[in-house]
Write a structure and sequence with these properties.
Its main location: cytoplasm. Pfam families: RsgA_GTPase (PF03193). This protein is an alpha/beta fold. The protein contains eight helices and 15 strands. The protein has helices spanning 2-13, 148-161, 178-181, 208-215, 230-237, 289-293, 319-324, 332-345; strands at residues 38-46, 49-54, 68-73, 87-92, 102-107, 113-116, 126-130, 134-140, 164-170, 191-193, 195-199, 202-206, 219-223, 263-266, 272-275. The strands form four sheets. A six-stranded mixed sheet has the order 10-9-8-13-15-14. The longest helix is centred in the middle third of the chain and has 14 residues, at 148-161. The two termini are 26 Å apart. Mean pLDDT is 82; it is low at 1-23 and 244-259. The protein binds guanosine-5'-triphosphate (GTP) and zinc ion. The site of zinc ion has 7 residues, from loops.
Length: 352
C-alpha cells in the first residue's frame, strides 16, 4: 500500500516529455514568480543539497569553471524532486561562498527524462537525470559477455527518455567488435568502440577520439552492466574524475565503488558526462509502443492502418502487411523484427 501511494504521488508531479530530437528550448513549467531568479543547472545532488552551476543564459551549457552554488529546493516547488541536469532558477545567496545556501525557486520543464526503475531499496520509480542528450550504452565485447537484452532495454530507455542512444563497445582488444554487432546492425545505431593497448607509458584506452566527438558539447549518460569498463572510460575522458575501477562483482552486480548519487563531470573538450553509479536497470513499464516506434521512422507510416491502441505485437497489427508490401524497403522484415524485440524487452524479469 505505501509503495502504491508513493508511486501515485510521484506520478502526479512527474514531468511528461515527448522525445524531442530537435531539442527545442525548454519551456518554463513553473510560473516565474521570482523575476530575479538566476539561471543555473544542477550538477550534483546529495541528500537534498544541490550543487548548481550558474549559467550565462538559461539555455546554455554550463562552463566547467562557472560559479558553483549550493542550493536547496524551496518549499514552494511542492513535491517535485530536483535531479542532476535540471535547469533551475536560484534566489538568495548565490555568491557560492562557503557555508552559503541559495534557494531553488524555479524548475524548467525537462526536455528529456531518464528514469530508473523501482527496486528493493526504493519502491518508487524515479527520474535520475534530466535534460541529457545522449545515452551511451556501454557493452563489452567480452569479459563480461555482452547481454543483448540489457542493451535492448537501455535502447528502449533512451527512446523513452527522448535521448539519442550511442552504442559503445569496449574491450575490442579481446575480440573483434563485428562478432557482436550483428544483433544491433538493423537498428542503424551509431556505434563506437574502444580497447586497451600497451604503450611504453603503460596501459591506455584507445579509440577515444570517436567517442569524444560524440560527447562534445552535449550532456551524456553512461550506462552498462557492471564490469564493462564504464569507470575506466570516465577516468580516461575526465582525467580528474578518478573513479574507482574494479573487478566484476557477479553477486551484487556492482563494483567496489558504489555510491548512490549522480554527478555531472565536465569534459575537457566541452560537454558533460553524468556518472550514475546507482543505475542498474530502467523502469520501462511506462514506455508506450508508440515511443519505441518513433525510433523506426521507416516503419512508422505503416502503423496508420493499425487498430486503435495497437501493441504492434499482435495479429491485427498493420505493420506486417506494410512490411510485406515493401513499404519499409528491403530491410523491412528485419527492422520489424528488431522493433518487436525492443518492445518485448520492456517487460519481463531477467537479465538486468
Ligand atoms: N581488456 C580490457 N579490459 C578493460 C578495458 N577497459 C576496462 N577493462 C577492465 O575491465 C574491468 C572493469 O572495468 P571498470 O571500469 O571498473 O568497469 P565498470 O563498468 O566501471 O564496472 P562497475 O564499476 O562495476 O560498474 C577492469 O579490470 C578494467 O581494467 C579494455 O578496453 N580492455
Ligand atoms: Zn500495430
Amino acid at each position: 500500500m505505501p509503495a502504491e501511494r508513493s508511486r501515485r504521488r510521484w506520478d502526479e508531479d512527474d514531468v511528461r516529455v515527448r522525445p524531442n530530437p530537435r531539442g527545442s528550448r525548454p519551456r518554463t513549467k513553473e510560473r516565474p514568480v521570482h523575476a530575479d531568479a538566476v539561471p543555473a543547472v544542477v550538477v550534483a545532488v546529495d541528500r537534498g543539497r544541490c550543487t548548481c552551476l550558474l549559467l550565462e543564459a538559461p539555455g546554455a551549457l554550463p562552463a566547467a569553471g562557472a560559479p558553483r552554488v549550493t542550493a536547496m529546493r524551496a518549499r514552494e516547488l511542492g513535491r517535485t524532486g530536483v535531479v542532476v541536469g535540471d535547469r533551475v532558477g536560484l534566489v538568495g545567496d548565490v555568491s557560492g561562498q562557503p557555508d552559503t545556501l541559495a534557494r531553488i525557486v524555479r524548475l524548467e520543464e525537462r526536455r528529456t527524462v531518464l528514469r530508473r526503475t523501482a527496486d528493493d531499496t526504493d519502491p518508487v520509480e524515479r527520474v535520475v537525470v534530466a535534460n541529457a542528450d545522449l545515452l551511451v550504452v556501454v557493452a563489452a565485447v567480452a569479459d563480461p559477455e555482452p547481454r543483448s537484452r540489457l542493451v535492448d532495454r537501455c535502447l528502449v530507455a533512451a527512446y523513452a527518455a527522448g535521448m539519442t542512444p550511442l552504442l559503445c563497445l569496449t574491450k575490442t582488444d579481446l575480440r573483434p567488435s563485428r562478432e557482436v554487432l550483428g544483433a544491433w546492425a538493423p537498428l542503424g545505431l551509431d556505434t563506437v568502440s574502444t580497447h586497451r593497448e600497451q604503450t611504453p607509458e603503460g596501459l591506455r584506452i584507445a579509440g577515444l577520439d570517436a567517442l569524444r566527438e560524440r560527447l562534445a558539447d552535449r550532456v551524456s549518460v553512461l550506462v552498462g552492466h557492471s564490469g564493462v569498463g564504464k569507470s575506466t572510460l570516465v577516468n580516461a575522458l575526465v582525467p580528474t574524475a578518478e573513479r574507482a575501477t574494479g573487478r566484476v562483482n557477479d553477486v551484487t552486480g556492482r563494483g567496489r565503488h558504489t555510491s548512490t548519487s549522480s554527478s555531472a563531470l565536465p569534459l575537457p573538450g566541452g560537454g558533460w558526462v553524468v556518472d550514475t553509479p546507482g543505475i542498474r536497470s530502467f523502469g520501462l513499464a511506462h514506455v508506450r509502443p508508440e515511443q519505441v516506434l518513433l525510433a523506426f521512422p521507416d516503419l512508422e507510416p505503416g502503423a496508420a492502418g493499425c487498430p486503435r491502441g495497437c501493441t504492434h505485437d499482435e495479429p491485427e497489427c498493420a505493420l506486417d502487411a506494410w512490411v510485406a508490401g515493401a513499404g519499409a524497403g528491403p530491410a523491412g522484415q528485419v527492422r520489424l523484427g528488431s522493433f518487436r524485440r525492443l518492445l518485448r524487452a520492456r517487460t519481463g524479469e531477467g537479465e538486468d
